[in-house]
Amino acid sequence: MRLDDRVTADRVTDEAGRQQVLAVLRATYLREKRWVNDPETQFPPADLGRDDVSWFVVAVRTRPIGVRVRPAGVVRVVYDPPLAAYASYGFAPLDPSLSIEEMIRDNRIAEIGRFAVVPRFRRRLVVAAALMRAAAAETVARGYTHYLTDVFEDDPHSPYGFHTRVMGFHPVATHDVGELNCRSRRITLVLDLKAAYQRLKARGNWLFRYLTGHWDDALHQRLVA
């Protein structure tokens, strides 16, 4: 059985799922990176009831099927992130003609972040792809048009390559401060979901089929026109 047959990604809706997210954050953001002092602050119990925040967790089943399920990665989506928070970071635009503030104001923006994959699964592209598949389906269904995210410039495990080369994110700005305890400069990336959909579809490779194969026609139509 291939690894991708053993990978599942789900939106977190209960305490058991929250604990899976925290297990990944403890392994990565706390012990490995030391970006946080307490992973609980990243996903407090109250967030389970919020409509503007979604966490997704990827689990990998061991062989034989059903013996053990390991949480392998997580990602968080924040819908309509507050503009004031981004303005306070002191953006240095990479393209002077682009206004981050105007882009956030004039489009339906969702912030995708807290992307983390435990070390043993980092070389498995399907784990990262499963996170994007789960998150993107919900984001498109809710009518959002763009993703906004930050990655650390000096992080050896940064998703920068996956985001830019595979998904099509574009770097638009840098800034030196943020929510996490890291001295590395942040690179702000933007993904136009419709443009990404059409580009991946034109390529006709496995990733487009993997990301959208379970969509109904109504979901596809949101990004076709």
Automatic annotation (TrEMBL):
MF annotations from Gene Ontology: acyltransferase activity, transferring groups other than amino-acyl groups
Domain annotation N-acetyltransferase: ranges: 22-194
Source species, domain of life: Bacteria
Stored InterPro entries: Acyl_CoA_acyltransferase (IPR016181), GNAT_dom (IPR000182)
Listed name of the protein: GNAT family N-acetyltransferase
